[in-house]
Amino acid sequence: MIAARFAGDAGGFALDVAFEAPAAGITGLFGPSGCGKTTLLRCLAGLLRLPDAALRVGDETWQEGRVFRPPHRRALGMVFQETRLFAHLNVRENLRFGLRRAKGAPRITEAAVIDALGLAPLLARAPAGLSGGERQRVAIGRALLAQPRLLLLDEPLAALDREAAQQILPRLREVSRLFAVPAIYVSHDLVEIEQIADYLLLMRPGGRLAARGELGALLTDPALPFAARRDAAMVLELRAQAYDEIYDLTACAGAGVALTVPGWHGPAGAAVRLRVRASDVSIATSEPRDSSILNTLPARILSAETAVGPHINLVLAVGQTRLLSSITRKSFDSLGLAVGGMVYAQIKAMALAAPGAY
Amino acid sequence: MPAAIPLTLELAGLSTALLLLLGVPLAWGLARGRGWWVEALGAVIALPLVLPPTVLGFYLLILLGPHGPLAPLLALAGLHTLAFSFAGLVIGSVVCSLPFMVQPVRSAFAAIGPAPWEAALTLRAAPWDAFVSVILPLARGGIVTGAILSFAHTLGEFGMVLMLGGDIPGKTEVLSIVIFNDVETLRWPEAGALAAGMAAFSFCVILATLRAEARMARLRA
Amino acid sequence: MSLPRHATRRHLAMLAVLGIVAFGLRPAPARAAETSVAVAADFTVPAKRLVAAFEQKTGDKLALSFGASGQILAQITQGAPYAVFLSADAERPRKLAAMGLAVPGSVFTYAVGRLALWSAQPSLIDSQGKVLQTGRFAHLAIANPQSAPYGAAAVQALKALGVYDAVAPKLVTGENVAQAYQFTASGNAELGFVALSEVLQDKSGSAWVVPQTLYQPIMQDAALLKAGKDDPAARAFLAYLQTPEARAIIRGYGYGTTP
What is the dotted CATH code of the domain comprising A2-214? Predict the structure, then answer.
């Protein structure tokens, strides 16, 4: 459990937050520009010190009252947007920088990190000669080798092009799970958060928290801005069941939902994380037949959010989970849909993008 | 005269070493500090750049003498004054060459910025460790420049030595004074030879240091 | 046609800079040529007084330059346009004459330097200079004996008194007698051999006028230089220095004069 409270003014940036984040998995920290995300992260790292603050990570008190552990005495690892690799050291020496200084036998070994992040071909090179994606992978490896109990990432992919960023995201999720290090991931890009986070802290201008909770719950919460967006999406955590070799499809299930997903997503029991765009979920009032759509799920309409424009977003209860569906207001009216009604939610298998899936 | 050469080299070498010990932390403090005192201190350190060395020598003569603030300490050591001594010249050289060390090093630190420093702290490096393992290597160029400038400046220091030295062979009679005296006593060939030798030596030192620095930078790249 | 505003401002700025530079480099307006007089730094104060009196008398204008005698000599050999040279010794004017840079026959002694032993401490020096025998001091300041006549005279006096070997390790050398005075005045040297004229100006401390039997007389010579050969003001000034009025002024500053 990570328990934090920060209140006060830090050189022009105001903060007033209190939260508890899970001690496992990735917690996203999301909000508009200037709302204080980076300030909060720097407070968590100890780079910024607010007088009225408290921070406990697991059983360690990093800050409370007069107690303040400076950054170098906190078991943390930090990844910055500008990588900040040490130019006078090569990749291997960069990786070892924190490792050398951490006490005790390393739980996270150099070989394991190099393997997990694919750093082997880069070891003897100088940081200046690496691409942006390579540099950031080294930075993540370096932070992990400092034996952190908490990983802090400040918009680490913001300076990379889409392709490089998409390659790193699944690796990031994997190493957090593999090495059992919880992470707090700051981003202004909701798609990134949806691909990677389990828990979400939503901040608003003025350095305050607007909401916190499980990612899925927040994404489908009618009171929050997410559900009503035109590009709203939902994240499902399922497990692979069976693989159809002939048609290259994997059947996944979890929380009362069964979906067919294209491609191989691991052996039976492997975790599959799916991001389902609301615009890929269509509604039928009777069970469809003779359609190419493979996924049809009975659902009940929990709420309908209207934003400005032609669309209306529905929050559906499917099994024990929620789904978002974005349809035209015209269809909503012509089908006679209403909150509480039972419908069929349809998702095209080919529309199931699965970034972050294993 | 023969004693003047090792004496001058010793003065320049010792002064440069002291300036590294003193100037690098000062430059770091100035680069990282905030507040009005930063610029004030920077201006004080830069004074020797604009004050004539004779003015500096004059103030040093008073400061290091029996009526100056150091007098009680000197009396404890059984000394009457620090003028006319090698130690006095070292103090004078450090004061006069301080800006030549501090300015380039401060610029180097400022160019590095706070980012590598913070990164090192988050990687378990204590502040002193971060300074030595990360900041100093990154600032090496500026430090080398500062050392070269200080060494060369002390080598040729004249006005301050004139005011403070007392021209004692083997103790305070450095090369620049010898050259001056040779001119005064119309021994121009000797003066010319010494001056040419000093110029050639300084050139070689600067060239060698710059080349070594370039070579190290190439190896790292 | 109207120029874009930024271009006009830039052009005006360039013109202003050019104007300032041109003004600074303008040829000097023709004015009554000033006679340039180089004076050994030790004689600065008396020289200014003498020049003021001379200018008032004759209406001629003199431009004074002060410096170390050796430096002035070097400058003259490199063509410095001095008309008159007042040296601190007799050697350098003689050399200039031998080199053909001074007008032959124009060299004469304008002042005789007097040596004094002085200390900033009021009780250190007795009226017979016995302190030199007791040796109760750490540093004794003198002018450089090789280049300054006062320094050479100090060494002569010390040898004549038989204390030179004992005192030698404590000697500190200033480049000229004024610097020897500075070392002594600041207290860094407890005592020093200085020019009597300096002692007379500063009445504090204690002093012993060194008897002239103990050292060679410090003849300070003047010369008319080649550059001033045809300058009537230069000749007039040198003549003025030998008048009884000028001599009285010079003696008032603690120097001797030859008649």
Answer: 3.40.50.300
